[in-house]
Amino acid sequence: MSNTLQVLSALVAVTAAMVVIVLARPKLLRRSSGRAMAFIAFFVLPLVITYGGTRVHLEGAKSTQFCLSCHEMEPFGQSLHLEDKEYLPATHFQSRLVPREQACFTCHTEYTLFGGLRAKLRGLNHVYVHYLGTPPAPKDIKLYEPYSNRECMHCHEGSRKYLEIDPHREEAAGIASGKLRCMECHEKVHAPGEVADLPKWEPPK
Amino acid sequence: MSTERFHYRLRRAGALILAGMAVQLGTFSWASPAAFLVFALVGATLVALGALLFLWTIARATHPPDDADEPTPAPQPTPGSAPAVTGEPQADAAPSEAPSE
Fold first, then answer.
1. ipTM surpassing 0.90, yes or no?
2. Which of A164, B11, B40, B68 could serve as a FRET partner for A179 with CA atoms 20 to 30 Å apart?
3. pLDDT tens for residues A125-158?
4. Cβ atoms of residues A48 and A168 within 8 Å
C-alpha cells in the first residue's frame, strides 16, 4: 500500500472516530472547541479525504493495469510482449524504455501544457463508451490524430543512441518540423488484429 | 430548530459521511474505471450530501442546543388540544434558547 493510501486510511479512521464521538456526546457542541471538532469531522476531513482519494484514482488511471482492465485494450496489452523487437510497444516495454507500470500513459499522453488534462477528458469519454455506448472492435480503434513526433522526441531527442543512427541526423530538419513522421519509418506499432497469433517474448528464467 | 431535530439531522449527516468514506476506501484497492465511477458517483456524492446536510443543520440551528443529551419532554396533552405525536421529530418545533456560553 502506498504512503498516500496509508495516510488516507488513517484519516478515514480518525474522521470516523470523531464523527462517532460527536454523535455520542452532543453535549460537546455546547463548547466552541466541540463545535470546531464537529466542523472538522463533518466537513473539513471528509473533503480532504475525497480530494486525496480523487488524486489517488487519477494517479491510478496512469497505470498499465488500469488501461488494460477494459477488454477492448487486451490486444494492445499483448503487443507489449511480442517477440519481434521491431514493434515499438514491445521494444519500449521489454527494454524498460518506459516504466512498465505506466507503459500506456507514457507514450499516449501529449507532452503539452494541457496534455494530461486532455488525456483524462478523452479517458472519461472512453469510460462512457465502454459502459454506455458501443465500443469498436480493437482493430478498429484509432488515434484521434496522427501520432506526433513530439511524443517520441520528448525522450529520444539528443540521446546518443538516437543521434548515432544516420537517418536521424540526415533527416533532422524534417523530423523537427513534423514533415517526416517517426511512424513513417517505424511503422510496426500495435497490431491488434494479428497480435494473438504472433510469437511472444518471455523473460528467461 | 428543536434539539431532537438537530440531533436527527446530525446523525443522518454522520451516517452519510461514514458510508461515503467506506465506499471511497473500498475503491482504492481496485484499479479499474469502474472503481473511479463508484468513488465519484457513490462515495463522493454521499460525503458531499453528508457535509452539506451538516452545514445546513448548523446554519439552521442559530443557537446550539443547550439541552443536548437530555430527552425532549413529551408535551402534556391538555383538554381540547391535539394529541402529541411521537417518533419523527417535528419540523416546526420551536428553536432552542440562547447558547449556554
1. no
2. A164
3. 998 999 899 999 998 998 988 899 999 999 999 9
4. no
Question: pLDDT tens-digit profile of A57-111?
Answer: 988 989 999 999 999 999 999 999 999 999 999 999 999 999 999 999 999 988 8
> Residue A12: what are its φ and ψ, rounded to 5°?
-60, -45
Residue type, A12: V
**Residues B29 and A55: beta-carbon distance below 8 Å:** no
For residue A85 the three cell numbers come to: 523487437
Q: Closest chain B residue to A34 measured between Cα atoms?
A: B64
Q: Which three cell numbers stand for residue B70?
A: 437530555
Reduced to 3 states (helix: H, G, I; strand: E, B; else coil), residue A187 is coil
In eight-state DSSP terms, residue A142 is -
- Dist CA B98 CA B96 (whole Å): 7
| Interface contact flag, B21 A32, Cβ < 8 Å | no
Q: Which among A132, A65, A73, A138 has a CA at the least distance from the CA of A100?
A: A65
DSSP letters spanning A93-118:
HHTTSS-GGGHHHHHSS--STTHHHH
The answer to whether A22 contacts B7, with C-beta atoms less than 8 Å apart, is no
Of B54, B58, B68, the CB nearest to A27: B68
The backbone region for B80, taken as left when phi is positive above 0, alpha when psi lies in -120 to 50, beta otherwise, is left
Phi first, then psi: what are they for A82, rounded to 5°?
A: -65, 145
Matching residue, cell 517477440 = A83
Torsion over CA: A76, A77, A80, A81 (sign): negative
CA distances from B5 to A44, B15, B50, B93 (A): 23, 15, 16, 8
Closest C-alpha among B31, B21, B48 to residue A57: B31
Q: Which residues are CB-neighbours of A133 under 8 A, at least 6 positions away? A: none
